[in-house]
Design brief:
Strand content: 15-25%
Structural class: alpha+beta
Largest sheet: 6 strands, antiparallel
Helix content: 25-40%
Order of helices and strands: EEHHEEEHEEEEEHHHEHHHEEHEHEEE
Number of helices: 11
Amino acid sequence: MRVAGVAIPSAAFELRPMLQHHRLWVERLELTNFRNYAKLTLEVGAGPVVLTGPNGAGKTNLLEALSLLTSGQGLRRAPYNELAGSGGEPWTVWSRVHARSGPIGLGTGLAAPANDTGRSGRLVRIDGEPHSTMALDQHVHMLWVTPASDGLFTGPASERRRFLDRLVASFDPGYRARVGHFERAMQQRNRLLADAPGDGGRLAAFERTMAETGVAIAAARAALAAELANAVAKRRDAGHTAFPWAELAVAGALETALATRAAVDAEDDYVRLLAAERDRDRAAGRTREGPHRSDLMVGHGVKDMPAKICSTGEQKALLIGLVLAHADLVRQHHGGAAPLLLLDEITAHLDAERRLALFEEILGLGCQAWMTGTDRTAFQGLYQQAQFLALEEGRLRGGS
């Protein structure tokens, strides 16, 4: 392994080339003017990576850069123009990734404003060629747990939908595009209801698009939740008990309809509902029914209680258990290639037993997990298994 040109022993990761061939992992990461990193070049092996350092060193910033190797706004959901460091220069993130299709170069950065509005977008290049951000999902599958995730079960339904959508996208690279199509059609319908409510023909066209994409979204969410629940049950029966098993369900009008109705009938029902609700939606200024209102319901299986009323520690353990079960499911479906895991301050709220269980699960999955923490000793269970890098004020101090 090399860090900023310095060779660092990494024998634990170079002795298993056969496993590396089947892994998804980042080999090289280059940052320019990203957050507090003026410039960074980092090379690692296929195993777990532990980033340590004081608060403000840039640990979460590095994970955020990695999260931009998929579509979306990353783990903080920050506006792209806020990711740049000092001086106002454009930021870039480039990586050499070992994907299922082989090594590939993935790059992204901030585009210059397209017009005098000052708004700028995100550019993506794959092996040097321009692509849409959605194309990243064809090569990289990724999940993350951050301190903000601690409020997943008690926060708004939108956060749980976003979490669920990331899970679904791991199996369906076109899923985010369908979500985008639905949201654009809904926005156009909302504007038309406000500006020209009598234009029935155009409203009907938007509502048909919403029905087709909305039912597909609901079906994909329900199918994933069912498969994940089955995976959780198998892990429980196999003795994976360090993290509590979860009960899962997706609550929503379309999901309920699909439990008893064919998809084509559910589409027609939704079209009729949207047409009947135009006046009420116009008065509300929004579309009140659809997959954008669904919620992921999670329960603590052992205690038979909703996750939202569990303790903070129990919620963290539930979330980690879900992420691990999903990572195992992805690994099985993708020929042994587990997703990348970004685990920010992951040892918080975990006792020593659960920390060790987490590390064992990560090693068993064969995934490249990037973990952060201020205390290096919290990761002592990985001393002989992971790559340790120390960060300070947006730079690497070295590693071992």
